[in-house]
Amino acid sequence: MNLLLINPNTTQRMTDALATAARAAAAPGTCITACQPSFGPASIEGFFDETIAAAGVAEQMRHAPAHDAVLIACFGDPGLDAAREATRAPVLGIAEAAFHAASFVSTGFSVVTTMTRTCVIAEHLLHKYGFERRCRGVHGTDIPVLALEHCDAQGQPLCLPQIEAAARAALAQDRSGAIVLGCAGMAGLCAALQVRLGVPVIDGVSAAVKLAEALVGLKLTTSAVGDYALPLPKPYAGWAQPLSW
Amino acid sequence: MNLLLINPNTTQRMTDALATAARAAAAPGTCITACQPSFGPASIEGFFDETIAAAGVAEQMRHAPAHDAVLIACFGDPGLDAAREATRAPVLGIAEAAFHAASFVSTGFSVVTTMTRTCVIAEHLLHKYGFERRCRGVHGTDIPVLALEHCDAQGQPLCLPQIEAAARAALAQDRSGAIVLGCAGMAGLCAALQVRLGVPVIDGVSAAVKLAEALVGLKLTTSAVGDYALPLPKPYAGWAQPLSW
Amino acid sequence: MNLLLINPNTTQRMTDALATAARAAAAPGTCITACQPSFGPASIEGFFDETIAAAGVAEQMRHAPAHDAVLIACFGDPGLDAAREATRAPVLGIAEAAFHAASFVSTGFSVVTTMTRTCVIAEHLLHKYGFERRCRGVHGTDIPVLALEHCDAQGQPLCLPQIEAAARAALAQDRSGAIVLGCAGMAGLCAALQVRLGVPVIDGVSAAVKLAEALVGLKLTTSAVGDYALPLPKPYAGWAQPLSW
Amino acid sequence: MNLLLINPNTTQRMTDALATAARAAAAPGTCITACQPSFGPASIEGFFDETIAAAGVAEQMRHAPAHDAVLIACFGDPGLDAAREATRAPVLGIAEAAFHAASFVSTGFSVVTTMTRTCVIAEHLLHKYGFERRCRGVHGTDIPVLALEHCDAQGQPLCLPQIEAAARAALAQDRSGAIVLGCAGMAGLCAALQVRLGVPVIDGVSAAVKLAEALVGLKLTTSAVGDYALPLPKPYAGWAQPLSW
Amino acid sequence: MNLLLINPNTTQRMTDALATAARAAAAPGTCITACQPSFGPASIEGFFDETIAAAGVAEQMRHAPAHDAVLIACFGDPGLDAAREATRAPVLGIAEAAFHAASFVSTGFSVVTTMTRTCVIAEHLLHKYGFERRCRGVHGTDIPVLALEHCDAQGQPLCLPQIEAAARAALAQDRSGAIVLGCAGMAGLCAALQVRLGVPVIDGVSAAVKLAEALVGLKLTTSAVGDYALPLPKPYAGWAQPLSW
Amino acid sequence: MNLLLINPNTTQRMTDALATAARAAAAPGTCITACQPSFGPASIEGFFDETIAAAGVAEQMRHAPAHDAVLIACFGDPGLDAAREATRAPVLGIAEAAFHAASFVSTGFSVVTTMTRTCVIAEHLLHKYGFERRCRGVHGTDIPVLALEHCDAQGQPLCLPQIEAAARAALAQDRSGAIVLGCAGMAGLCAALQVRLGVPVIDGVSAAVKLAEALVGLKLTTSAVGDYALPLPKPYAGWAQPLSW
C-alpha cells in the first residue's frame, strides 16, 4: 500500500520528521512517500499561513495518482476538501483522524496545541466535523511550531514538560479522558506523554496512517458523485496553470 | 491480533454470518472470535429488543480479556458504553464505525436500514455521536432483519433489488455521496450494491474490523480515567451475579 | 390511579425508600406499587451497571398491565424507551421528569449528583432530551449512591452538608436558579435543601409521580404508532424467554 | 387549588370557552378563574398581535397573587417570561405545556396550527425551549383563529375535517407519533381528533392545567433568584403606571 | 434619509441621549427622529419591563410611515418582530446590529452589560439570531441602566472604570477579540473604551444607524411575504384600539 | 472611502462586471478598485477551484494597505479569514454580507446558486457563520458560472427565467421570505428578480459594499488581538516568497 503524506509547510526537516513518524505507525507493506509544496510558509500558525498552505496541498495532489491514500499532515487539515476532489483515493487530515480516534476511546477529549491564536482553527474544524461536544476544550501553549523540535543535550524535547503540564491541566479542567496533540510536530512526543499522563494520547499523524490503511483495506474510495466529484475542466492562470483539470 | 465480535442477538446463523463477513475484512494475522449472548431476542428491531441485547453484550464481555479489541455487531450499538467500561481494549459499534468511515469519503451520506421503526435508533446515535449534519437521511425499508438472508435459487439475496431502490432514492433525495447499510445483516450485500450504485457503500461490520485493527495498531486503549473507568465493585443479584466487578 | 415504580437497582431498602418518597408526593387516590428487577447491580454508578439495570426495568415491565403509568426511579432513566414500547400507559424517567419540572420554574438549572463518573450519563440525557441549554452544569460529589442513606445519631443524612455546599457552588458558578438532585436516593434531602438554598430543588421521584398523574389525567397514552409500537413478536432465548412478545 | 387562566386576546367568548376547557381538565378541588386583558387584539395571528397581547398578560398578572398557578392560554406563550417575574407561583404557557406532554408519549410529534404565518412563532418557541428535535414539523392550515368555533347545524366544528386531514398528512410526512394542536381555540377538537387519528393528540390548555396541578403539588415555585427575580421597582408611565413594582 | 429611532423606555433624557448618539453616527443627509412610548417603564432591566416596552415600540410604529428605516434602541430588541410586520421599511434592533457588526471584525466577541439578571435576555437573543457560537460570554456589571449617565465633576461617566475592568476580564477569560456594549445607555462610552482596550468596541446604537443606512441604500425592504406580512385587520380593545390594522 | 474588491477568479471580464456592480451600489465618495489574482481558476465551481482562489485572495491583499475596506467577491468567501489577518481594515465576503442582509428583512431565506455541487460550500458557510436556521434551503440550478453572462439579442440574460423559476420554487418549498443570489456573477439579475418575485432579493456584491461602508463609518477595524492578529513573520518559499510577513 502506498500512502502519500503531504506536509503542508515548506520546512524539509519537518517533512522528514513527519515521514519518520508515519513510517513508525505504518503496517509492514505500507510505503510512505512524503512531500511538501513548492511554495508557502515554513510553518503554519494562523489563517494566512494556512490559506497559502492549502493551495500547496492542492499543488502536491499531482502526486496522488500513484498512491492508495493521501494524508495531510498539518493539524488545520488545510486543503482537505480540495484534495478529496482531486483523487478517488481516500484523503485524511490529521486533525480529523485524531478527533475520530479520540472519540473511540473516551467520552470526551481535550486538545493541546501550539500557538493560542490557532485554537480557533481547531475549534472551527471540531464544529465542521461534528466533534464540538466530544471535544471539551482546546488549549494553547504558545510554543512556536518550529520550536517543538528543540532538544536538550540528552535529545529530550525541551517543550515536553510544558506540554505535559498543559495536558494535565486540561484533563482536570475539562473532565476529559484523552488528549489530542494539536500539531503534526508533536508526533514524537506522543508515546512519552501517554506514559506520563496515563490516558490515551492521540497523535494525528499516526492516526491518519492507520485510518488510511483501514479505508484502503475496506476498498472505500472518495465518492465520485456530487460534492467531491472531480474538478470541472477550466483554464487556470499563472503559476497554477498546470493544476487545471 | 485477536478481535472479539459480539453478535447482540441470539441467532446462531447470524453470528456465523457476521464472523464470515468480519473475517473477509480482516487483515492476515487478525483472528476473529464470534459469540452471542446466552439470552435475548432472535433479532433486534426496536428499543425493547435492544435493551435486552445490550445486557447480553455486557454478559459476553467476560470473553474480552483475551482479545485486543471488541466489536458490537448490531447497528444500534447496544451496550457500547458498558462494554467500554469493562475492558481497556478498544470497543467499536458497527453503526459508529460505519458513520466514521462514511464521513471520510463523502460530505454527506444516507442510511438505508430495515424496519422503519428503528430509524429513530439510528437517529439517536447520529445525534449522540455528532453525525447529525453528515447524515442527510435515514430510510427504512421494512424488511425484517431475519429476512435479509432469504435467497433465490441462484443464491442471490431476495432483498437486494428493494434495498438498491431505496438507496438510489436516498442518494437523489438527500443529495448524498455515500450509503451506509443500517443493519449488520446487510454485510453480504455491500460489494454488490457498491458496484450497482457507483458510490461508496459502507458495511459497519467490515468498517469496525478495519477501524479496530487501526486502533490496536495505534496502541490506543479505552481511557481508564473518568467516564470509562472500570465498573465499581458491588454485588449483582440473580442471573447477573457473575457480572459483578 | 395505580402507578408502578420500578427501582432499577436490586437494593430492597432503596426500593422501599423510593416507594415512601413517591407515596409522599402522590395525590390521594394514587396508589404506588414498587418493584425491583430479579437481577442486576445493588446500585447504579456507571454505564455497565446501567445497562444491566435497563434490562431489569424491561423485565419488570411484566407488571405494567395493571397500572396507569410507570416510573423508572434511577437518574439515568435506564430502559425508558424499551418500557415505552412495552405498554400504552405513560412511562416517565425521573431524570426526564426532573429536567422538565426544573425548566418550568427557572431559566437555567444545575444538577448535583453522586459519582463524578456518572455526570456524563446525565449529560447524554440532557442532550438527548433537548435540555442542553437549560441545564447550565452537572456536578459530581463522589458520594456513593448507597452512602446517601447514612445518617447521624439524630437521623440527619451525613451527606447533606456536602450536597448543600455543592449546590451553592453550582448556583453561583452556573448562574442557575434551581437545583436538580441527580440521584433517586437524594429524594429525602429535597425539602431540607430547598429551605436551606432558597431556590427550587427538584427531586425526580416526586416530579415523576406528579407528572405521571398529570399525563393520566390527560388520558394520554404512549403513542402506539411508529417508534414506540409494541415490540415485534419473536423468540427470546435464555432467562429472557418470558420477555418475548 | 386556584388557577388563573389568562386568555391573552380580548374575545370574551374565547375566554369563556378556554375556561370551560380548563375546567374539564381540572381535578376536583381545582378552581379556574379566567380573565382577559383590558386591551389588545381580538385574536392573535402574528407578531404584532402577540406583542400587544403579551403586555395584556403582564397587565392581568395583577390577579396572580390570589392564585396557586397561572396559565397563559395562547399558543405563542405571550408574556411568559414577564409573568414568571411577577409571581412566585408557577406559570405555564400552553405551547410549552403541550410540547412537554407530547415529548413524554412519543419520540417525535407534529404541530398543526391555524395561520401559516404563525408557524414561525411556534418554531421560535420550539427552538427556545429545546424541542427543535422532538418536533418534526409545524403545519399551518390557514384557518383563522376565530373561525375555529364555527359549527354546522349539528354543532360539529366545521374545521374538523380540514384539521384532521392536516394532522394525517403531518403524521405520515414527519414520521410522527403524536399531534400537538397549535391553538388554544382547538381545545374542543382534541378528544374527537384523538379518536379519529389513533395517536395521542395534545391540547395545550388541558396540558397546562394538569402540569400546573403537578407543579403546585410538588410545592415548586418560580425561582426567586436571578433571572426570574421580581421586577425592580421603578416608575411606569401612561396607562402602565399601575403595573410598576 | 429619515430614520425613526424608538427608545423603548419612557425616560426622555435617555431618548435625547440616544438621538444624540445616533446623529453622531449618521451620514450627512441622514435625519434622525427620536421618540418614546406614551407608556411603560423608565428603564428596562428584566422581562417584565421589556414586555411592556415591546408594546410601547409597537405603539410608536405609527410614526414609521414617514421613515426609511426604524431603529429599536434597547439591547433586548423589544418588539422587533412586531415592528417588522408593521412597516415595509427595514427595522433593526441594536443588539442584533451590534452582534452582526462584531462578527465582521472578530472570530469571537464578549458582551458587557448592566444588570446580571438581564444577561439571559442577551443569551436568548444570541441563540435566536444564531450568534451563540460567535459570542463567547455575556457579563453583567450590576450597574443600573439609569446610573450609566452619572458623571463626575469633569463630566466623565462614573461607571467607565468598572465597565473597562469588566471588559478586560471578559477579553481574557473568553479569549475574545471584541467587546459589544450591552445597553443603549452605554453609547457614550464606546469611543473611550475602544481607545483604552485596544480592541473593537461596538455600540449598538451607532451600529444600527449605519446598518440601516446600508439596507436603505440597498433598497431592501422587510419581506411582505409570509412571516412578516402586514398584521391581519381585526378589532383591538382598550387603549390599543388605534393600533388595529 | 476606498474599497478594494477582490475577484477571486481570474476572468478579467468578470472582475470588470463586479466592479460595475459594486460601483452601482456605492455611495458617492466611495471609490472601488477591483483586482484579481495573478493565478488560479477562471471560475470557482468546487473545493479545488476555491482553495487555489483563496490563495489568490491572500496574494491580492498586498493592495489592501491603501484601502478602507476589502471585499471578497465570490460566494464561497475564499480566503476571508486569511484576509482578515492581513489588514486592520474591515474585510467582508459576499456570501457573509448577503446572509447578514437577508436576516434583517426576513425570518427565513433561501439561496439560489449555480452548480449543485457547490451547494455544500454555501451550507458549510451558513453553518460556520450561524445562519443554519435562518437559511431554509440552498438550491442549485446547474448553470455554469461563466454562462450567467450569456445574453439574448436584446441583452437579456438567458439564465433569468431558469433562476426565477428556481427562486419561486424555493420560496414555496422553504416557506421563505427572501432570496439570496448564490453567485457573484448574478449581481446583474438582482433588480429584475426583485421586481418579478415580489420579495427581497439580495446580491452579495452590493450588500458587501454597503456593509463595508457601514463598518468604515463606524470606525471599526478588524480586531488586532488574538485570532486575527497579523500573521507571524516567517519565511515563505517559492512564488509565495513576497507574501511573507
From TrEMBL, chains A, B, C, D, E, F:
- Domain of life from the UniProt record: Bacteria
Its Enzyme Commission number(s) read 5.1.99.5
Tell me the Pfam families matching this sequence.
Answer: Asp_Glu_race
Q: Catalyses which reaction?
A: a D-5-monosubstituted hydantoin = a L-5-monosubstituted hydantoin; D-5-benzylhydantoin = L-5-benzylhydantoin; D-5-isobutylhydantoin = L-5-isobutylhydantoin
* Recorded coiled-coil stretches: none
Any one Gene Ontology molecular-function term assigned to this protein's record: amino-acid racemase activity
Q: Which InterPro entries match?
A: Asp/Glu/hydantoin_racemase, Hydantoin_racemase-like, Iso_Racemase_Enz_sf
| PANTHER family documented for this protein | PROTEIN DCG1 (PTHR28047)
**Which family does the entry's similarity section mention?**
Belongs to the HyuE racemase family.
Name of this protein: Hydantoin racemase
What is the species listed in this Swiss-Prot or TrEMBL entry?
Answer: Vitreoscilla filiformis
Taxonomic lineage from the root:
Bacteria, Pseudomonadati, Pseudomonadota, Betaproteobacteria, Neisseriales
